[in-house]
Amino acid sequence: MKPAAFDYVVPRTVPEAVEALGDSGREAQVLAGGQSLILEMHLERVHPGLVVDINRLPALDEMRVYDHSLRVGALVRHQVFESPRAVPGPLGTLFSRAVVNIAHPPIRARGTMVGSFAWAHPASEWCAIGVALDADVELHGPDGAREVAARDYFHGPYRTARRPEELITSVRYPLLGDDTGVGFLEHRRTHFCFAQVAVAAALTIGDGVIREARIGLVNCADRPVRARAAEQLLTGAEAGPLPVGHRIPEGHPFARAGRTAAAEDASPVAEPYADLEYRRQAIAVLVARTLSQAAADQRSRAAAGKGDPP
């Protein structure tokens, strides 16, 4: 199959891109990495009348830290985050653990983090991390710039708060403190499949007590989910000794948080290779294991800060 005919423009500034999106008079799509868009056009599931290629906008190919936050431009590729040193502190570790689950190296070399927010697939790793960490999405339109909190940005599969005439220019994340540990785990049927479930976690622990928990669920509803019921259960709880191996004791706070996330926070649906019972069990197990990974990461950071062996 081949895509239907379309017009193609290459703006040189953000205002030119916004003007093209607003003046097209037909459905327009933005091309950054194109790793989802080109396939959908090839299969004739998407029929844009206009493709706006933003790859000649150098201002969008920047990532910088300011005011205790990280701003990721719309042209920053996935592969940048494979090194945990690309982003300061625990946030860099979280990104590096998540990004290796995204497709394959050639796709990570072209695809973009912001493109994942634009596409809004329920199985997107970046989108769930954005929701869990209270990221903000920056959009530019004819009336200027505005920011939308990630929790309000996603409306369902492929549906977002972005207006047709707006361009997503960046996503902004708060940096994580050194007293925070992070984890990310993903379960899929094969390496070529989307995640059946994935979990991002950030735990802030002080004096053995969980001060704050953030949990993002991937492909557990029609949009990225923040597991607030599970977070509430963990906040103020004793972190306790780290579980040994993959089995988390049923009475451990992490196991209870996993069961809570599966029962109260997630809204999974049955799939051909995973019925509802299986999916809820997978969510419960993966949440518990990811929290254990985050707690181990926090303990390692605390030991390194004191000069002790991890």
UniProtKB/TrEMBL annotation:
* Sequence ranges assigned to domain FAD-binding PCMH-type in this UniProt record: 1-178
Q: Does the keyword NAD apply?
A: no
Keyword annotations for this protein, in alphabetical order, are: FAD, Flavoprotein, Oxidoreductase
Q: What stretch or stretches form a coiled coil here? A: none
Q: Which residues cross the membrane?
A: none
Entries under SMART domains matching the protein? CO_deh_flav_C
| Claim: Methyltransferase is one of the keywords in the record | no
The protein's matches in Gene3D superfamilies, at most eight in alphabetical order, are given as: 3.30.465.10, CO dehydrogenase flavoprotein, C-terminal domain, Uridine Diphospho-n-acetylenolpyruvylglucosamine Reductase, domain 2
Q: Which PROSITE patterns match?
A: FAD_PCMH (PS51387)
What the entry lists under Pfam families is as follows: CO_deh_flav_C, FAD_binding_5
Name this polypeptide is given: FAD binding domain-containing protein
Look up and give the organism this protein is from.
Streptomyces lonegramiae
